[in-house]
Design brief:
eleven-stranded mixed beta sheet; 22 helices; alpha/beta; 2 domains; two-stranded antiparallel ribbon; 12% strand
Length: 619
């Protein structure tokens, strides 16, 4: 009998030893409390002068007009929240069931964490999405403490989302508003955004003796100064880039300008060029050089290398003096003026045109106007990059486009003459808060690091103002009332615009993960226009899917010969191709190039590309 007792005790002792070892390993994943206290005390002492100086400067800064006109509910979520509370009261059992499910998952999390702490097998109750970068560091998984915090937070996010999704009696727009607003709040409350619940920040604090937090406060002070008293988070190293030197460097010259735009012609890089020039119409919400960042990723440079005589519009960054420039001015003084000048320079009566985003919306409007004026042959083919014509489903931007918000925006523009660039930039940042806000809060202020030089984020931070008259027209007639998709819905210079009569051959490029111009919404344009159509769907999003040079060998695209009524049917029959869509587009546009002529060199330049207009920053 004693031998049997000893035999039973041996495995038990081994299990206890393994559990003790596992527990000790988990304890070692936590920061040393004494060392951490010393580091935090050092950070406190070092940061006091900085903190007091920052408070003093903030006190000396007069309150901005934006704060004076602060709206606590800019998205008008209040009524949606009231309807949500009514839904909970109307069907309490449904919400009780969801609460019970949530409680069960919490219990599973506790049990899983206890098992992990003692070295036993445990599986996560919930995992972050693959695209979620906040919890990629191994310390979020290795430590039972931080793993518990992470999963606890993710379960709470899922619980909130499920409650909104399953609420009865709410419109889809109300659900989208509540979902978006609650996600903003939950994103802000992520444990990754706080020093004491982020293991990576704690480790950095120990290693630097708290100086990361001191440097973070210095970075914050600089960002307050950059925002003239408001926090303007740095997203890149702004000193690392200079237009015309290391971005927007494709050789060319400004060949025409007026109050609204400069027209750039690029130097040929081939002996022969296509007879028909190529006009690029970028959006005026951002600057054109998204199409000409680094040489290796420049669509403009690549198009020149393929043998196109490329012209590109560079829109002015307007101030209050241009408040009365309307959408029609962008057509006549922008696109039509560019067509006139290209004809004078090249002698060619027509050209191929590429419109990107809002530039594509302007291009479609112009095509309909030219058709009504019997001048449609001035544009031989049209390429639309991530372009909305039918605004019925305008993606996440629709959240900001109800009657109340539009009226408030128009009233604000009536005071300032423009929609300020920072307003638009703030909106776009909110659409991707984790990537464009909180990741930089952690990097700049908690880790105390400088943001990495990134050309795309430099461009993203270089947005433009919008003239009051133009933007009011755009918001009311397109985003709110969706009149461009209706025959005769809008009128330009006495001409009723009917996109359905456009017969110009068209190439449509959309991106699968676009949250600004959803691909199924952009596909609707294939059903509106009457001419030959080719639709291509690229992987990735609104920017990365478009700016995808062949040399990168990234992503893929889908293409098909037909454009059936349903986008789902189109996708079923589409063929997937690895790599960039650019060569596919080049093969298409060759059919409308009208042969080749000798390379056209610039004869009467005004100034080197990228010109003066693009140099004017809003901030």
């Amino acid at each position: 009998m004693p031998k049997n007792k000893n035999a039973q005790k041996a495995p038990q002792n081994d299990n206890n030893a393994a559990a003790q070892k596992a527990l000790q390993q988990q304890i070692e994943t936590l920061p040393d409390p004494v060392a951490l206290s010393q580091a935090l005390m050092n950070a406190y002492q070092q940061s006091q002068p900085l903190f007091m100086n920052m408070l003093q400067k903030m006190g000396q800064t007069p309150p901005s007009t934006e704060l004076q006109n602060f709206d606590p509910d800019p998205m008008n979520v209040g009524s949606a929240a009231t309807h949500f509370m009514n839904a909970m009261a109307t069907n309490p059992l449904k919400f009780w069931d969801m609460q019970m499910t949530y409680a069960q998952k919490q219990a599973q999390l506790w049990q899983s964490s206890i098992n992990k702490m003692w070295g036993q097998e445990s599986k996560p109750v919930i995992k972050p999405q693959k695209s979620d970068r906040r919890f990629r560091d191994d310390s979020w998984n290795d430590s039972v403490f931080f793993d518990f915090i992470k999963q606890y937070y993710l379960l709470a996010c899922d619980f909130v989302e499920q409650n909104i999704e399953n609420a009865e009696g709410l419109s889809e727009n109300e659900k989208r508003k509540l979902s978006f607003t609650s996600k903003l709040m939950m994103d802000a409350l992520s444990p990754s955004n706080f020093a004491m619940t982020n293991p990576v920040v704690l480790q950095e604090t120990l290693q630097t003796g708290g100086m990361n937090l001191v440097h973070g406060l210095q970075n914050m002070q600089e960002d307050f100064a950059r925002g003239n008293g408001q926090l303007k988070i740095s997203t890149t190293d702004y000193d690392a880039f200079k237009l015309g030197e290391n971005i927007a460097t494709t050789p060319g010259h400004v060949v025409y300008e007026n109050d609204l735009m400069q027209l750039i012609q690029y130097e040929p890089q081939t002996h022969g060029v296509f007879k028909r020039p190529l006009l690029i119409v970028p959006p005026w919400i951002n600057k054109f050089y998204i199409l000409d960042l680094q040489p290796q990723s420049s669509f403009i440079r690549w198009a020149v290398e393929q043998g196109h005589t490329v012209f590109c519009i560079s829109w002015v960054n307007p101030d209050a003096k241009l408040a009365q420039k309307g959408f029609d001015a962008y057509m006549f003084e922008g696109l039509i003026a560019a067509l006139d000048e290209i004809k004078k320079i090249t002698g060619q009566p027509d050209c191929n045109a590429v419109g990107y985003c809002l530039g594509g919306t302007l291009l479609a409007t112009t095509l309909a106007w030219l058709k009504a004026k019997k001048q449609e042959k001035r544009i031989a083919s049209a390429t639309f990059l991530t372009t909305l014509i039918d605004f019925q489903d305008s993606g996440d931007m629709k959240l900001f486009m109800d009657d109340e918000q539009i009226d408030e925006m128009i009233e604000m523009m009536s005071r300032t003459g423009v929609l300020k660039a920072e307003e638009l930039q703030r909106t776009f940042s909110l659409l991707r808060a984790n990537d464009l806000i909180w990741s930089f809060v952690v990097n700049n202020y908690l880790m105390g690091k400088e943001p990495f030089p990134f050309d795309l984020l430099y461009w993203n931070d270089d947005s433009t103002n919008m003239p009051a008259k133009m933007h009011s027209f755009y918001l009311r007639n397109m985003y709110r009332d969706n009149l461009l998709s209706q025959p005769g819905g809008i009128e330009i210079d006495g001409i009723k615009i009917d996109v359905s009569k456009v017969k110009t051959p068209a190439y449509f490029l959309s991106t699968k993960e676009d949250h600004i111009a959803p691909w199924k919404a952009t596909y609707e344009t294939t059903q509106l226009m009457s001419g030959p159509k080719t639709f291509t769907l690229a992987a990735s999003g609104h920017i990365a899917g478009v700016i995808n040079p062949p040399s990168k060998e990234k992503y893929c695209f889908w293409s098909a010969n037909d454009t059936p009524k349903s986008p789902e049917d189109w996708l079923k029959n589409a063929e997937e191709t690895t790599g960039s869509w650019w060569p596919h587009w080049q093969e298409w546009i060759k059919h409308y190039a009208d042969g080749q002529v000798e390379a056209r060199h610039i004869k009467n330049p005004l100034e080197p590309a990228p010109g003066r207009y693009v140099q004017v920053r809003s901030n």
